Amino acid sequence: MGSLKYIDKKGTFTLDNPDLTSYMYFPLANEAGMMSAITPDLGGDIKLDQNTFLLEPVSSENLHNNKSSRNFWVYVEGKGAWSVTGRSAMQQAQLFTDKKDDVKLTAGIMWHEIERKSDEFGLSAKITSFVPSTDDKVELTKIVITNNTEGEVEFTPTVAIPMYARSASNIRDHRHVTSLLHRTYTIKDGVVINPTLTFDERGHNLNKVYYAALAKMTGFEKMVNPESFCPVTEEFIGNGGNFENPYYVMKNMPLPYKEGEEVDGYETVAAMQFEKVTLMPKQSRTFVVALGYGESMNDINELSKKYLSVEEFDKYLEETKEFWQKKINVSYSSADKEFDNWMHWVNFQPMLRRIYGCSFLPHHDYGKGGRGWRDLWQDCLALLIMEPAKVRGMLIDNFGGVRLDGTNATIIGSKQGEFIADRNNITRVWMDHGAWPYLTTELYIEQSGDIEFLTEKNAYFKDPQVCRGEQKDLEWNDAQGNKQLTNDGEVYEGTVLEHMLMQHLTSFYDVGEHNHIRLRGADWNDGLDMADERGESVAFTALYGGNLGNMAKLIKSYADMTGNETVELAKEMLLLLNVDPTVYDSIDEKHEVLYSYCEQVKHSVSGEKVNVKCTELCTILNRMSQWIAEHIRNTEWIKSKDGYSWFNGYYDNHGNAVDGDFESGVRMMITAQVFTIMAGTATKEQIKDITAAADKYLYDEKVGGYRLNTDFKEVKTDLGRLFGFAYGHKENGAVFCHMATMYANALYQRGFAKEGYQVINTLFKHCNDYKVSGIYPGVPEYISQRGRGMYHYLTGAASWMLLTVLNEMYGVKGEIGALKFKPKLLAKQFENGEASVSCMFRGTNIHVTYKNGMCKDAGDYKVAVIYIDGQRYGETDTIAKEDVDKFGDKADIVVVLQ
């Protein structure tokens, strides 16, 4: 296995022999909807959505099981056939011998290049692939074949790319029948499929998509078209053959079809053969291949004109590189250049998630596209840093998914702000869902200073599910639509603040027998899905409590900054607010409050508004927040027989605490530690105890740091399906990077910089060690028991890593529009006493340099003075909002620490 090396400051890396690592894939995509996955041997797939795959859909196991790839063959006279992608039967047989091809990967943001050299054939190939950052749905590849011998080499080049051209559901469902729909055409520079119909979950419909594979070769002062074609798979591979040993290539025969022919009803391969090529020593010949989509044959012809030349390929490649580098407007300069480059990829990952959703890469084979409720809000965290101009409207639209009972829609449409009723009538309530919108909204307001965002309005979502998933609204029907109506039949709208209050107040009263918020279907850990009757989540009760207190601070800021003494709320919310605090201790009385409110908004709402004083509202929210914190401190702090202490995080479906000493051993889950620390529930002394316990029971350097839980040693069916997974995998005890990163974030927030750094640095060191993690740069969803990074690229961990490093480690953060510096960098992170970060803040590109001349550690220094563009600003750690407003397009800021 080779070693991975960065070759610049923009994340570009090289890797020797990537073909000796299985399960590897790389994303290529654009904002027009083109989504590809490509492997070192050019396997993978291409799609626009679940129903429109150009290449056959692949999951992780298909990457080594399938024989098909974006293959390109050369038949060398006197020697035989060589695949420039390494996908011939002969090359596969030589993979572990001294006859193996030399292979090198070079890749950067959204481009992928493989160099392959064969001593046996005397040839080398450089294969560069990318998806142009245009509005076109096309993937481009350039293949350069070079003669490395002292004599001339003659070969016949053949493109051979199996085309799928239908829905992923047809892999097993009507695979053969849907091939009968194919109408395949050979055109002057390629093969095009225009199926007659589509058979998938949408029904039987006329097809409107053209799928194309196009190719040209450099000739003398022009690009040359293929000479012959074979669009039929069974014909091209021959009886007994396959895509690694195809009949027409191995026999070196001209392909049997010419331009302008049609073949109907067969599985299709884009097999295109060019005229024989003779290369003198060191001479090269170049080919350009385009795989793309159109809505007409004219669209396909336009792709050919636009992209099938070396000059245009090179031009669009450079434009695409520049496009994505500009998008990544956060970069770091520290003593650890490897970390700086690794973070460049982490910063890019939220953009990939916005394009791919949570599906459409080989390990993410469990979905059909789109994103979940948490994804809507957590992806916005990164967008607030990277592309803040787009976020305001997105946040408002997202609030349209909240129901009046505080739950939310779980089927999210393809359009922004589109939420859909579940026609299967499946009740889904994740108890954590109400907490995330506040965290994102708070960050938006802190970054932007847009405090009046709290008064922006949107409707509420409506479907049959009411009373937090316990009842059905039998009066609701499709004609009513998916928006909450008033008693008069008008669409009801409430402020952003009202939406967030609704989510938190209803959760506050929705408690189990230990007076913590009910787990219901699950919380953030979707695997905790088998305790819907008696399960409780102490972990997220703590987060709701912290949010309630922080919301009170935000409302106070709103009143102070706007002069408004009241906020407008739905009249029904008084049932949740005007409650004697003694009720908080009574589970039955809490239920009475909740169900009384839910009954009032079960089908429609009055539409009446009331003005609530900000001071009174803040008092209520603070009281609730404090009650939660004290309740958890008093009831959930546990101590093991080994003398370690931490917070219990859950109750199972038998009403038993999950953490603690058991016959099978100590049980500890990190989630409760994260949110009790983050919410301020844990005291400073308790945090010290928690970190000691986590180091004792959860830390494992061999797999990247802090595991999600200890081994329960049972299939715990009264808590969740995750316990059916093998220990050390996914949600059952893996290092789940999302929660590990949030653990670091919580520690940094509370001033435990060294402990937070250990979490991030251990995770980084592991992921960045290719020989151990087996992944390209970036943070995966989790790390397996054997140390492998799993479910790479599309993970919420990236957004939280970006926030943690920028806002907490580097301490660049907003404070209601002001720019605050509160760095927690360790002494060893400074290079010659300096560390810097470039990012966007309120529309300005800022470059912040910290000067730590005394080489002090985090916690030992403070901000002494700030300079802006060389001018002394003052002895402060904050640049006031009105002074930030004076920034131009960019600002160079020096922060002196002492």
Task: Write structural notes for this entry.
This protein has 898 residues and is of the alpha+beta class. Among the domains are: 4-327, Distorted Sandwich (Beta-galactosidase, Chain A, domain 5), CATH 2.70.98; 638-797, Glycosyltransferase; 810-897, Maltose phosphorylase, domain 3, CATH 2.60.420.10. It is 29% helix and 25% strand. The chain is built from 23 helices and 51 strands. Strands 1, 2, 8, 9, 10, 11, 13, 14, 17, 18, 20 and 23 form a twelve-stranded antiparallel sheet that branches. Strands 6, 7, 12, 19, 21 and 22 form a six-stranded antiparallel sheet that branches. A six-stranded mixed sheet has the order 24-46-47-51-48-49. A hairpin with a 4-residue loop joins β17 (210-218) and β18 (223-224). α8 (337-356) crosses α22. It is globular and about 90 Å long.
Question: Strands, helices and their partners?
Answer:
Blueprint: E1 4-6, E2 13-16, E3 26-29, E4 35-38, E5 44-47, H1 62-65, E6 71-76, E7 80-83, H2 89-93, E8 102-108, E9 111-118, E10 123-130, E11 138-147, E12 153-163, H3 175-179, E13 183-187, E14 190-193, E15 197-200, E16 203-206, E17 210-218, E18 223-224, E19 228-232, H4 233-237, H5 247-250, E20 262-264, E21 268-273, E22 277-279, E23 284-294, H6 297-307, H7 310-327, E24 331-333, H8 337-356, H9 373-386, H10 391-398, E25 411-412, E26 419-420, H11 436-448, E27 457-459, E28 465-466, E29 471-472, E30 493-495, H12 496-509, E31 536-537, H13 538-562, E32 566-570, H14 574-577, H15 587-600, E33 609-613, H16 614-635, E34 637-639, E35 645-647, E36 650-651, E37 660-662, E38 665-667, H17 670-678, H18 684-697, E39 699-700, E40 705-706, E41 735-736, H19 737-749, H20 753-768, H21 770-773, E42 782-783, E43 789-790, H22 797-809, E44 812-815, E45 818-821, E46 834-841, E47 844-851, E48 863-868, E49 871-874, E50 878-879, H23 881-884, E51 890-897
Parallel strand pairs: 47-51
Antiparallel strand pairs: 1-2, 2-8, 3-4, 4-5, 6-7, 6-12, 8-9, 9-10, 10-11, 11-23, 12-21, 12-22, 13-14, 13-20, 14-17, 15-16, 17-18, 17-23, 19-21, 24-46, 25-26, 27-30, 28-29, 31-36, 32-33, 34-35, 37-38, 39-40, 41-42, 42-43, 44-45, 45-50, 46-47, 48-49, 48-51
Helix pairs in contact: 8-9, 8-22, 9-10, 9-11, 9-22, 12-13, 13-16, 13-17, 17-19, 19-20, 19-22
